[in-house]
Amino acid sequence: MSPETQTTDVLAALYSVLQSRKAADPAASYVSSLYAKGTDAILKKIGEEAAETLIAAKNGDDTPLMHELADLWFHTLVLMAHRDLPLSRLTDELQRRFGTSGHAEKAARSKS
């Protein structure tokens, strides 16, 4: 199995678990408790994790940085699952941007 396939499989499996947590008891599931609290609680967690990622990156040690990046990605996927945005929407958007200058892509977005 290629590293790309493993990455996709891990993200797809995690996304599936996150979707399944919608039916879980909020008292028994961290993710379900975030869903029950609503979008603002999820956004707050993403903000916290983004700040922690920035601090870890500034400190220069890659291990804490990887932990914070994993937390940030996790909570971003929680938001996607909460909004029922399939993982394919994210990968399709990243694929669409492939081969396009970041400056050109951002300029095209600001025109629409």
Quickly describe the structure.
This protein has 6 helices and no strands. The chain has a domain of 50 residues: Orthogonal Bundle (Helix Hairpins), CATH 1.10.287.1080.
Whole-angstrom Rg: 16 Å
CATH superfamily of the domain at 38-87: MazG-like
Element pattern in H and E? HHHHHH
N/C terminus separation: 40 Å
Q: What integer is the average pLDDT?
A: 92
Strand content: under 5%
Structural class: mainly alpha
Could you outline the blueprint of secondary structure elements for this entry?
Blueprint: H1 3-20, H2 30-37, H3 39-59, H4 62-82, H5 87-97, H6 102-111
Helix pairs in contact: 1-4, 3-4
Would you give an account of this structure?
- With 112 residues, the chain is mostly helical.
- The chain has a domain at 38-87: Helix Hairpins, CATH 1.10.287.1080.
- It is 79% helix and 0% strand.
- The chain is built from 6 helices and no strands.
- The protein has helices at residues 3-20, 30-37, 39-59, 62-82, 87-97, 102-111.
- The longest helix has 21 residues, at 39-59.
- The radius of gyration is 16 Å and the shape is globular.
- The mean pLDDT is 92.
